[in-house]
Amino acid sequence: MKLIKNNIILLVLLGLLQACDKQDFVDINKNPDALDKVPPQNQFLNATISMNSTDFDAFYEYYQKTMPWMQYTTGLNGNQGPFTQNWDNFTQRYGRLYDGVGNTLYDVEQLVNKLDEAEQPKYVNMVQISHILKAYYAFYVSDIYGSIAYSDAFQGRYGGTLQPKYDTQQALFAQLDSELKTAIATLKTAPSITQVELGNYDQYYNGAAQQWVKAANALRLRMAMRVAKADAAAGNAIITEVLASPATDFMSSNADGWVFKAKASFTGTGDGGNRNPSTLRAAKPMVDFMWTTKDPRIDAFFTPNGYSQANIDLLIAAKLLPAGTKQPERRYIGSFTNPEDAKLTSIISHYYTVKRVTIGTTEVQVDTLSFLQPRLFSAGYSDPSGKDGTGLSYLPVITYAEFCFMRAELALKGMGTGTAKDWYEAGVKSSIAWYDEVGTGSQLLNYTAVTAAEITAYLTQPGVAYDAAKGLDQITSQSYLNFMKQAPEGWALWKRTGYPNPTSVVPLPPVKNLGVVLTIPRRAPLGLISDTDPNVANKKDAYSAMATIPGFGTNPGDATGRVWWDKP
Q1: Three-state helix/strand/coil letters over 8-64
Q2: Would you say the pTM of this structure is higher than 0.70?
Q3: What is the pLDDT of residues 272-291, one digit of tens each?
């Protein structure tokens, strides 16, 4: 992983990267041939920045939907009413594929193709790395949308069709896997000519081919485990093939993680912006489990409540607490995820009623409940004194911990090397270590670095110490915790495995409104088709085909329905 340089980001955003200036980028929109002036590596960097700068997704998809649905968080006063039916502005990832990521990565290959024939072989690795990133993002979009335009897409300004056909999810996943296999094989082959390296234009791995091999293999496993739910033979064949690779082609430490790192300002400063999580509460089921098991990640995920001894003393002085009140041992208290609990008068009075005391002209609010750790999501978030954070922003794609948990789950099925217990424990350790790196690197507030003794002790806790009889439950529960920064993956885990659930190690209790159990959505709602859409025929065909998928839902806009891989 490489730290993104402020000057590179600035140059990209201003359109002044190296051989091209601002006018070049204006010209590109008017004349596609002007793109020839842009070095291929510029478009790779532009794509990665576009992919990771989707702050609307942070607000709408993470904070408003997948995080409360998966009980990573609640609103300020707990989950309210039929909150699982909030589908508006679901996600920006679909549009970003065609305007910012997929099209820009497609440019990389087209720019290379326009170079002199003698120069083109120097860019083979760069093109294949672009294919890996494009395959990931297409998978990420299709994962919740189903059929999408891919095989015919991105070609319009190069003389290709402006009405691309839609690939079914089943066909798309097979094509993406094939592309990843080709990329891996190419990157593993010693080039016959010195390659033009991506270097700092690759903020994941600095252009290191072998690191991209590891990332691509991890992605193949993630995709294949989705496929296996709908087509066990096809998914397991891919898994078996991947696991036959040499150990050097796999992630083996947190240093191999597929993670974008940037300055604090990349995810926002102060207390404004779409990534600002300051009104999001910690969720009670997760907090209770982490507190009970002495999880070392608890202060990386959440903030302590307001009952510090200093604040208690202020409340005593204001006669709002009795003299002699001491700071409680437990200051991590979660918010109620069930709307019917959150509306009870006794709970509102005890948990959601903030005590206030005025000192001079300053009002101090003392809150019973914890919030999300703000700098975990917005590294530039200002501290209580108003000073903006100056740490790092971490935006993971696939962490080493996730790779370990996938291997642990597969080991339960007798696939691959190593035992489920060993991979599970490696996943727990690496997850804690990674969040500890984030804790220090992002300068999380009220954070204490983890010790080796804490990790050792955690692995002996009931519910954490590996129990073969609860193997899948424990593996998926820890994977769920690890996805705190990747709620859409926690959502996918739940759809694929059925964990977490009301009785799992880390529980996901049922939620109700007016006595009715709420249904958690399973896919993105599909928009209405306009007859003025230039690709209306292909879109209608795609919708009609998806409507035949078992469990698709009552209509295209029904987010409680399923895509192909999410087989009932």
Answers
A1: HHHHHHHCCCCCCCHHHHHHHHHCHHHHHHCCHHHHHHHHHHHHHCCHHHHHHHHHH
A2: yes
A3: 789 999 999 999 999 999 99
